[in-house]
Write a structure and sequence with these properties.
This protein is an all-alpha fold and 96 residues long. The protein is built from three helices and no strands. The two termini are 39 Å apart.
């Protein structure tokens, strides 16, 4: 029987890349962007929609809340990824 080496843990890598902090910053940025977009829509700064539109099931407010959630999620993922890549580049440069 050969002894297999235990699986390496990714926790030190996640700590070194500050993924938890980056995720928190990304989530805050995503929520801020979504709230700003939703307020922009509610105050109708851009004016009303051209023509008549129907919003089945959820109504206009429900659909825009759902779109705000999608915007917040996408923005949070993008910001988290970019911050983690910046952390990775900094870590690689400090190691060389």
């Amino acid at each position: 029987m050969s002894e297999e080496s235990p699986e390496p843990s990714v926790a030190p890598l996640l700590d070194a890349l500050s993924v938890r902090r980056n995720a928190a910053v990304g989530a805050a940025a995503g929520v801020a962007l979504a709230v700003l977009a939703y307020v922009f829509r509610l105050t109708r700064v851009a004016g009303p929609f051209a023509g008549t539109r129907e919003f089945p099931l959820l109504g206009e407010t429900g659909w825009f809340l759902l779109l705000s959630f999608v915007l917040a999620s996408a923005a949070a993922l993008l910001v988290t990824t970019l911050l983690t890549l910046v952390s990775l580049v900094g870590l690689v440069r400090s190691e060389t």
